[in-house]
Amino acid sequence: MLQSKTRVWETHNDLTPHYRIIFIRNGEGHFSLDGKLYEYGEQGIILLGPGHHPIFQEDVSAEIFVLAFDTWLSDDFLQKKEFSPDFADIYKQAEHLCSSVRLTQGKPVQNERDAQTISYLINQILFEVTQQPTSHNKLIRGSIDLIVTILARNNFECKKVDEKASRQNLAEAIIGYLRDELHQNKSIRVPELLMRFNISEDVANLCVLNITGMSLRNFIFKYKADLFKSRMLKVDISEITSYLSI
């Protein structure tokens, strides 16, 4: 654990080989990481893998709190776990968290209650550290365990949002492609479409179903018929395709 000002962060290179979680206690500004520039603010979270080292800019009075997880456990995990069973499980969760970051670096978690809980737990850790008795180690370890669990849950929630947006984008791309091809009077070959988007027919069916309420093949048949009808009636096809809103 480390508490320091961002202006002296550069002197703590001994933590670089480990997985780290940085909490912004106060202050705001920017930091660079892996060639990208990010904003940070109070209650912000920065997740780092081994070798990653953010460089803070501007607010030299900003204060951070760092939890570092020793990568000694990364090799021969199951064997080494016997020597430190309590910490090993926390480490493994932190390792996974810092290796698959979905949270916005430098920003608080979106769940306001979770953000407040994390701040409370950090204050509790800092208080317990000053008390010295070894009996408080369990309280500190429990607080760290809870912080990592909260972050992991929020990270997973971000993943679900990303996946939902990705599926929506894929669905719109498939529908757009089908419409363009049919308007050009081209034949639609489902196997070619699946290869084009590198997906299975089950995935394609699900994507089209979510937007139109029809399977892929039913949509192709229905849209082709409605396109013919619109040309006969000399109207825009959007006037007779209530099942399609994109």
Describe this structure in words.
By secondary structure, this protein is an alpha+beta fold. It is built from 7 helices and 7 strands; from the N terminus they run βββββββααααααα. Strands 1-7-2-5 form a 4-stranded antiparallel β-sheet, covered by helices on one side.
Order of helices and strands: EEEEEEEHHHHHHH
Biggest sheet: strands side by side, in what order? 1-7-2-5
- Report strand %: 15-25%
Helix content: 40-55%
Termini separation (Å)? 51 Å
Q: What overall geometry do the principal axes of the alpha carbons give?
A: elongated
Mean pLDDT: 83
Contiguous low-pLDDT stretches (5 residues minimum) are none
Strand-helix topology:
Blueprint lengths: L1 E4 L13 E8 L2 E5 L2 E5 L4 E4 L6 E4 L4 E7 L7 H5 L3 H15 L12 H20 L5 H47 L6 H8 L3 H12 L3 H18 L13
Antiparallel strand pairs: 1-7, 2-5, 2-7, 3-4, 3-6
